[in-house]
Amino acid sequence: MIEVKHLTKKYGDKFALKDVSFTVEPGQVLGFLGPNGAGKSTTMNILTGYLSATEGQAIIGGHDILEEPMEAKRLIGYLPEQPPLYLDMTVKEYLEFVYELKKTTLPKQQHLKEVCDVVKITDVYGRIIKHLSKGYRQRVGLAQALIGNPDVLILDEPTVGLDPKQIIDIRNLIRGLAERHTVILSSHILPEVQAVCDRILVINKGQIVADGTPDNLSAQLSGDHKLMVRIEGPENDVAKLLSSLPNVISVKKLGKRDVGVYEYAVESRTGTDVRKEMFLRLADRRWPLLSSRSSELTLEDIFLQLVREGGHQ
Amino acid sequence: MKAIIKRELSNYFSSPIGYVVLVIFYLFSGLFFNSYNLVAQNTSMSSLFSSIVNLLGFLVPVLTMRLMSEEKKQRTDQLLLTSPVSLPGLVLGKLLSCYIVYVLMCSITLVYAVIMSSFGSPDWPVVISQFVGLLLLGLALTAIGMFISSLTESQIIAVVGTYAIILLVTIISSIAQIVPNATVAAILNAIALFQRYNSFSYGLLDFSNIVYFLSVAAFFVYLTIRVFEKKRWS
Q1: From residue B163, how far is each of A280, B98, B139, B142 by CA, in Å?
Q2: CB distance A50–B83 less than 8 Å?
Q3: Does A41 touch chain B (CB under 8 A)?
Q4: How far is Cα A2 from Cα A60, in angstroms, rounded to an integer?
């Protein structure tokens, strides 16, 4: 549905995007993840034809955005980071304007009503946009993107600045939309992407640093096994004992948790299990093992790791 | 394009700006008409048409100031430029909507001519030529104003900038007279927009002047399109 080939965008000598390529299948929900200024918005602006790439191609539903802009743009609904609202219009006037602007052929009143029902703005339909709260404005922006039932929805940070309840609402909404649309959304909030997307692209400094499903990404990076243990006993001695265990790569002291109780992170070689040996040795010394849990890398760790790695390159 | 014209027009008249401009124009042109024609019992509208130009210098920048600058400021250009609307269509739609208000404004002069016809017999061919001149001048001025507005996010800068340009082309023919170099003087005279208008207000429909105003308008429409394209590619 969306094909991006070797996209590069330069501002002067500075690269905003560097040779970015990916494809999105119909019906997929793709999450763009990256720190602020990573190139998420730039990519979206190029996909929608607002900006032009210095090099490379963006193809939407078989139409190159530069060569057949009309056909390509007709397939896209775009919600930019700041919803493009005319503040002095009512919601009704605004949506009718967008309807005409997009040369939509669906039955007008019925279509507008459907869109308003989907994003739940029917109760503010007659109000002037200027007087609406941020959450409602965001939804009117989303309604705008939905007009004309485009195959592709491109949403730039759709939940930014909303309160937790509104965030959940919008997320559910997007998940609902995914049934009939191909969606690309960007975010710098991990749980959001994790909750909504079935594929994640991590982008940092204009380059794609990871690509996969949320689970896939976790597995890909949590190769080393980490164990979090709480042990009652003298901190340094316990640490020394843990380090002396076979197959242990590193031991990190995480601090005091209770009187005489300390927590440690024990990293061991892949494919080995140090728990049994650890228990026996600690029992010998009469240092009780109070708890032990393995830590899988959360998406958050992965993200930080990727972004850090990218920074070193 | 139709959607854009419709929105822009409703914008002029849902805010006070359209009414304010029209009222100011009707009021002052009415005063001019009263003193030059009714009180002076004169059927020639030349003085009226040349005085009106001074009003336009003030009012056209007000009409054009928010055309593009406000879109940039509110980021609504992102909506327009990612919609299936061509860039020339977008720019022409903007220009036309502003021009429609301009025509609405200037058409009052025809009403004056009709009023006058009940007291005497105005020279209709001359009046028509004067009116055509006004229409052409307006097309060029609105195109210039739109271009200036596309350069900035600030309406204030747009209005002041446009006003400065209009002021410049107003006084430029007097500068041309004191420039000793003939080539420079010729160039200055070429951009003296209002000089060209004067021949219309005497009733001369000069083909070269018609082409002149149309090309000025086309040139600035082209420049406005370029501004958007450049922004895209930069």
Answers
A1: 88, 16, 16, 11
A2: no
A3: no
A4: 5
Instruction: Judge whether A183 and A264 are in contact, CB under 8 Å.
Output: no
The B-side interface with A (CB below 8 A) comprises 2-4, 6-7, 10-11, 14-15, 74-86, 232-234
B74 and A85 within 8 Å at the Cβ level: the answer is: yes
Determine the Cα–Cα distance for residues A178 and A92; give it in Å rounded to an integer.
25
Tens-level pLDDT at each residue, chain B (234 residues): 889 999 999 999 988 999 999 999 999 999 999 999 999 988 888 889 888 988 998 999 999 999 999 999 999 999 999 999 999 999 999 999 999 999 999 999 999 999 999 888 888 988 999 999 999 999 999 999 999 999 999 999 999 999 999 999 888 888 888 888 888 888 888 888 888 888 887 778 888 999 999 999 999 999 999 999 888 887
Query: How much is the pTM?
Result: 0.83
Nearest neighbour of B78 by CB, restricted to A50, A88, A98: A50
Q: How many beta carbons lie within 10 A of that of residue B80, not counting itself?
A: 20
Q: Do A103 and B84 touch (CB under 8 A)?
A: yes
Hey, are the CB atoms on B77 and A97 less than 8 Å from each other?
A: no
- By CA distance, what is A54's nearest residue in B? B233
Reduced to 3 states (helix: H, G, I; strand: E, B; else coil), residue A289 is strand
